[in-house]
Amino acid sequence: MSRHSKAGIALRSTVFSPQEMKKVAMLCEKAKHLQYIFVPDVSSSLDAIELSLGILESSKTLKAGPGVIRLLEHDIANLGRRIITIQKMTNRRFFLGVGVGRPGSDARAAIDELFKRLKSLEEYCKEERPETFVAALKRGLARRAAENAYTPLLNFCSSDYAGEVVKEISRVAKADVACYIKVFYSEQQERAEANLINEFVTYNMIPQYHQLFRMQHVDSYIEVAKERNELPSPLLRICLANPNKKQLMDFVNEMRDAGVSIPVIYPYFDHRDEERFKISILKDIFYCFT
Fold this sequence. Notes:
The protein has 290 residues and is an alpha/beta fold. It has one domain (8-190, 239-287): Luciferase-like domain (TIM Barrel, Alpha-Beta Barrel). It has eleven helices and ten strands. Strands 1, 2, 3, 4, 5, 6, 7, 8, 9 and 10 form a ten-stranded parallel sheet that branches. β2, α2 (48-57) and β3 (63-66) form a beta-alpha-beta unit. α5 (139-147) packs across α6 and α7 packs across α9 (219-228). The chain starts with 7 loop residues before the first strand and ends with a helix.
């Protein structure tokens, strides 16, 4: 993996406690090609920006930030003030991940407002403005993010679909492309598979994700998985269940070959799994980036 210099991991607050996140941050320092820790923002859980600060304070070189906050729900001046404060406390290692959230009936207007607010935030933060990732499910939004010098952040993508997005972006800009790689682990295989299926079923109820799954021709397989409680193999082109180190590395390399320059492994664990199991798996994940 030494030929590649950028990678990340996502630590979800419903999977990792704040104390576990700090432990993971210290372990991440040993994986020389892993620079980013994303903290997905879960509205019903802890604040992703505050958790990011805790991670930054527990490490010396890592970058950390929310991935992603719904920017349209934030006051720009208040958010900018928080960002400037964190940047000055952490030697500018904070990054920002943003998204539209559920755009409502006028997606175009919501996207326009997102980029308008990003520009306002840049003007507010000035020299403390953070590296910014924009959640992009479709090629048009990814292209627009790259045109504005932001890094597109993909999610629920096969390497084939990610490659299509990268080609679209390359027509207008030379830019990094990040992608979440969701991986479901458990000490029991059936739990890992059940949690993977549940994630697809849950997201398939969200219109923009349903469209994404249709474009990748897996929407019908999600319905099959829901009805039969079985894991169809096409879903494993997008997410993984209990992969070994080689399987995970092969998946990451497929994404690299498709043009994803910042693969972000996003591990899930069953709530019944113990911390020791999580740490052992995380060490396997770090193996991909050493």
